[in-house]
Amino acid sequence: MYSIIRPNTWVAIRLPSGVTRNILVTPNATISLGKYGSFPANFIIERPYHITFEIEDQRPDEKFSRIRIVPASELYAEIFADEESPDCSAPTADAAKSVISAEGGAEFTLVDAESGKLVTRSNGEVIDENARQTLTQDEIEELKREGNNAGKDVIAKLMLSHTALDQKTSFSLAKYKLLKTKKYIRRFQILPVDVPNLAHWQLEERDASKILDLRAEMIALVGSWGNVHYGGDSVYLEDPQATCEQGEEALAPLREDLLKGRWLVVDDTGGLLVAAVAERMGVLFPELDEDKSNLDEQTKRQRQEAEAEAEENQDGDVVMADVQDSAEKPNDGAKPKKPRSSDFEIPFSQTNTITVVHSASQPSLAFLGYWNFDAVAPSHVEHPLCRHLMCLTWLQLLKPELDTAYSTPPLTASTELLASWKPSRRGNFHRKRRRFARTKHIVEATRAGGFSGLVCASTMDPISILKHTLPLLAGGAPVSMYSPTLEPLAALADSFSVSRRTAWTSGTVPEVVVKTVEELERWEGNEQFPLNPTLLLGTSIQTSRARRWQVLPGRTHPLMTERGGTDGYVFTAWRAKPAEGKVAAKGKFKRRKLETGSAAESEAAETPIA
Amino acid sequence: MAPTLQHTVSPFLEPGPRTKPNSLAVLQLSRDNFVPVYLQEASGEHDGYVEGAVINTRYGSFPHSTLLNVPWGSQVRASKVDTGSRGRKRKRQLDEEAGCETSEPIEDENEKGNSNGADKEHGDGDEAKQLVTDASGFIHVLPPTPEIWTTSLPHRTQVVYTPDASYILHRIRARPGSTLIEAGAGSGSFTHASARAVYNGSPVEGKRQGRVFSFEFHEERYHKMKKELSDHGLDGVVTLTHRDVYAGGFLVGGKSPEADAVFLDLPAPWEALPLLSRQRPQLKEGEVGEAGAKPWVSPLHPKKSVLLCTFSPCIEQVTRTVSALRHLGWVDIEMVEIANRKLHTARDRVGLYLPVDRGVNNSAKDVEEAITKLTEIEERFRENARPKQSADGTEPAKQESKAATNGKTPMNGAALKYPWLDGRLVTRGEPEIKTHTSYLVFAVLPMVWTEEDEAVAMAKYPLGRERFVVSVMGKASMKEERREAMQQKQGNRKSRRKDRDEKLAEVEG
Ligand SMILES: C[S@@+](CC[C@H](N)C(=O)[O-])C[C@H]1O[C@@H](n2cnc3c(N)ncnc32)[C@H](O)[C@@H]1O
C-alpha cells in the first residue's frame, strides 16, 4: 500500500458526497473539486493517503485555498456525542419527518461559527439567540458564493436558525447532519488507486458492464481459487548477443525448466482482471522506498533529490517514450544504464508471469493505464508489468503459422549496410527484430504449457476457452472462471458431469478407446463430450455477496440499498492427469448392478470423482 | 505424524511439477473429501514393511510409493495390499467413521486423517511382494492450497473459510511484501491464506519480505500450529508467537513487526486495539504507569496506512469494536457480511415414459404428456366398461399396453443412448447453507502527519507555480452544476426550456 501520494500517479478523490473520482496528481496543477472548491495539487503531493482534508477559505492575500487535516476526533464528534446521550436509541419516524419538512428537505450539521467546532446537543453549548434567524435559499447561495466560511458557516447559521432544534431526538438530528454534511462541508479524502478502489469506482460510478459487474467478492474468489500468488523470483534468459546479421537461428532457445509460476488469463474486463492478478503476484505497483527495508537514509535522500530534479525538468508533463527505444537513448537519466542489449534479448522473466490470450489483434487492457502501464506501447518507465506481462492472440496461440508477426523471419543486415541507413530506418529495423524475438518467445513459451493456473472473466464461451487452454495447464493447476451470468458456467460444469465422466472412463465410447491419454488431453470435442470430462477435478460453482451495514449508536442495521445488483458466479476446478486406460471406481457402495449409461445416473455422494 | 520435514520452499507456495517425498500432498478421495498426507519414501530398514507407508481408504489402498514423484493432479489406481485381517477390520471401522463425517469442527484431534476416512498404515506382511494394481479404485493427488487446506485441516477452533478469507485479504490489501498481524491463529486456516498472499520470494537485500506475524495464547494450539507451519515449510513466512495479545501486545522480540495489515479473530478485539495504535495507548482505569517506562514502540508501519479487519460473530462485539476504532482514530470504518452459496448443476429428467431409474421423475413432463396419459386411461376405462368379448379378456389388455408404449419408444431410444445429454440442465443451491459466519469490520489508520513532515513536503513542492486546472468533475457534471446554479438564480420557464433543449442536443449529438 502506498503511504504517501506520489507525484504523477492516479489517485481517487472521495468527495463530500461520498462519490469518488480518479485524477492524475500532477505537480503545479490546481485540483478542482467543482462546487466544493479547488486547491493546489502541491498541497497533497507527498502527503499521506486516507487522511481527511478540508478546503479552507481563501485568505485575503492569497490566490488559492489552503487545506487542513481534519482529525478523527472531529470526524466523529457527533457520534461520540450520541454515544454519550442516553436517549439515542429512541427514534421516532414522525420526529424525523417533521425535522426534514421543517427546512424543506435540507439537513445539517451543527457547527460553531467562531471556533469551527461541531456543536452537539449533549455537550451543552448554548446557541446564540441572535443567530436565530431564518435564512432563505437565496441567502444560502449567497453565503456559498462568498465562501466566507468554508460552508461550515452556512451550515452553522442554518442550524442556528432552526429554532426547534432542541426538540429533536438525536436520531433525527443525526440524519439531518449526515445529509447536509454531504452537501456543504468541503471535506475530501485521497485514496490510492488500487484494484479494490478502481473496481468499486467503475462499478458504482462508471459503467459496471465494462468490467462484467466484477465485484470485490468475486475478484477475491477468482484470485483465491486460481491460487494466484507470487510465482517465484524473476529469472531471465541470457541475452544471445545476436548480431544484426543473424536471423532466427540466433534466438535464445526456450528453457522449459526455467518456466515457473505462470498464470494464463483471459480478460474481457478491460484489464481489471489482469490488474487483480498482477496485484496478487506483486507486479502491479512499482517498488517504492517504503517497501524496501535496508535502504539507508543517504540513498533515499539522493533518490528524492534526483526525482525532484527530474520533475522540474519535465515541467509537469509526463514524458512517455517507447520502451524499445530506451537502449538507443543517450544516458541522460539518473539511473545508470546497463550494457547495450541485443535485439534478441528477451525482457520477460521466466517466472511469476501473466500470459494474456486475447481475441482482438491488440489486448484490451486500458485499466492498466491507472498504474501507468500501457500494454500496447509500454513506457520506458520501469514498470514491473513490462517484464511480467505477455500478451498473445488466440491465433498466435493456436495457429501461429498464420500470424505475420510470428511467421515472418526477422530482417538481417550487415553492419556496414546498417550504418549507411538513416537513424529512423535503423530504428525501425531494430524494432522489428525485437518484436519478432518477443513474439516468438511468447508464443513458444505459452504453447509449451505447464501453466500454474487459468483465470478468466470473459464474454467468450467458457467451454471453448477450456478446450484450448486445458492442455496448457500443469497437473493440479486450478481453473477459476468468472461469469456475470450462471448459464455459461452451468453448461461448463455439465460437461464434467458424473454421468459423462463415467461413460468416458467405462471404455464404451469408441472414439475415446482408440486414443492415448496424450491424444485425449487435446480432445477436440464432439456433441456428447464437448470437453474431455476427466481433465478437471472438483468442479464447482459458487457466488458470494457482501452485505454492508451501518454501525451507529442505537442505529445499526444493514444498508437499505446497494449498487452492483448482479451476482456473478465463479467456476472452479483443478486440472487432473487421468490414468491410462479404463478406470473403475470401487464398487463397494454401488447399491445395485447398473447397465452402462444408467450407471451414471446414480450421482451418489460416495462416487469418487473421476 | 510426519517426521520433521525439511523444505526450502513451501509446497503451498512453490509446489513444483511433481509430488515430492517428505512434503505435504492432498489426496482427493471424493468430491469434498480431501486427506492431507506427508508422502514418505519406502525405507525398508526403518519400518521393515514391504510397501512402506500405505494409505487405506474406502476407495482402495495406496502405498506412498505409488503417489510419489508423479505429476500433481495425477489419478492413481489402488494397489492390492495385504493388510492382514486385523488391518482389514480396522479399515472397515475407519470407513464407517468417514461415512458419517460431518463438517463440524473437531476439537483437539489427535491424528490427522481419521476424520477423513483415510489412515496411514504399514503393511504387515513379512515377505517381499510386487505391488499389484487393484482392479478398481483410484484417487487423485493435488498440491496443497489454502483453499484445500481449509477444508481438510484438523479443526481445533472455528475457522475462517475461503469466501471470508479471500474477501478480507483483498480488502486489507494483503499482497506480496505486506506485513500482516494476525490474532489468534486458531487452527491456522486464515494463516495459510495470508502466508500465500504476502509471500514475495526469497530474501534479497533491500527487499521487504512479506511476513505474517501470528499470535495464539492457547498453548496446545500454539504448539500444534508451530509444528504444522514448519511441516508446511511456512516458518520463513509466518512467525507464530505464544502470547495473550490483550496484555502483551504485538511486538516480536521487542521489535515492531511494522505491520500494514491486521486481522483480528478474537473474542474481544477492542481489548487488543489500543495496542495497535501509533502512540502509547492511554492507561486503563486503575492501571499505574511504570516509572521511567521505556519509549513505546508501535507494532504498525510508521510510514503507511494500516488496514484492519476484525471478525466477530455477534453484533454486540461489532458495536464495541467500531466504537473503539473511532476513538482510536481509525477511519473509513465499514461493516460487511459475506454470504456465499454453492450451486450444483444437474439434469432434470421428468417424463412419464422415461426409463424408471434413480434421478428420473416419472411424472408428466408437460401438459401434453399428461393429456396423452389421461386419454389413455379414459380409453382403457371405457374398454373395460364395454362387455367383454372373449371369456378371459387377456388379449385386449395385452394389445392395449403394447399400443401405449409404442407411441413413446422414439423418445426412449435417444434417452438411453446418451443419458448425460438428456433432461434439462438446471442449477440448484445446497440444501443447507451457511447463513452467517461473522461480521467483518474494516478500518484504516492513516499515518501520522506532523508539522515537520508538512514543512518538508511544502519545501519540496512549493506553491505559486500553478499553471493548469485538473478537475474531478467530468464535462457532463460541470455542465450540470452550471445548470443547477442557473436554475436557482432564475428559476423561470425560459431556463427550463433551455435546459431541456440542451439535454435533447446531448442525446442526439
Ligand atoms: C476463532 S479462533 C481463530 C481461527 C483462525 N482465524 C482460523 O482461521 O483458523 C480464535 C483464536 O484466538 C485465540 N485467542 C483468544 N484470545 C486471545 C488472546 N488474547 N491472545 C491470543 N490469542 C487469543 C484463541 O485461543 C483461538 O485459538
From TrEMBL, chain A:
Q: What organism does this protein naturally occur in?
A: Lasiosphaeria hispida
The protein depicted here goes by the name tRNA (adenine(58)-N(1))-methyltransferase non-catalytic subunit TRM6
Taken from the UniProt entry, a GO cellular component term is: tRNA (m1A) methyltransferase complex
Q: Where in the cell is it found?
A: Nucleus
GO terms in the biological process aspect are: tRNA methylation
Q: Name one Pfam family in it.
A: Gcd10p
The entry's keywords: Nucleus, tRNA processing
Family of this protein:
Belongs to the TRM6/GCD10 family.
* Highest taxon, organism lineage: Eukaryota
Automatic annotation (TrEMBL), chain B:
Write out the GO MF terms: tRNA (adenine(58)-N1)-methyltransferase activity
| Start and end residues of each stretch annotated as Disordered | 78-125, 378-413, 477-509
Q: Name one GO cellular component term.
A: nucleus
The EC number(s) attached to this protein equal 2.1.1.220
Positions with biased composition (Basic and acidic residues): 477-486, 498-509
Q: Which InterPro entries match?
A: SAM-dependent_MTases_sf (IPR029063), TRM61_C (IPR049470), tRNA_MeTrfase_Gcd14 (IPR014816)
Q: What class of enzyme is it?
A: transferase
tRNA (adenine(58)-N(1))-methyltransferase catalytic subunit TRM61 C-terminal domain mapped to chain residues: 137-277, 303-444
Where are the compositionally biased (Acidic residues) regions?
A: 96-110
Q: Which GO terms describe its biological process?
A: tRNA methylation
Query: What does the UniProt keyword field contain?
Result: Methyltransferase, Nucleus, S-adenosyl-L-methionine, Transferase, tRNA processing
Q: Where in the cell is it found?
A: Nucleus
Name recorded for this polypeptide: tRNA (adenine(58)-N(1))-methyltransferase catalytic subunit TRM61
In which organism is this protein found? Lasiosphaeria hispida
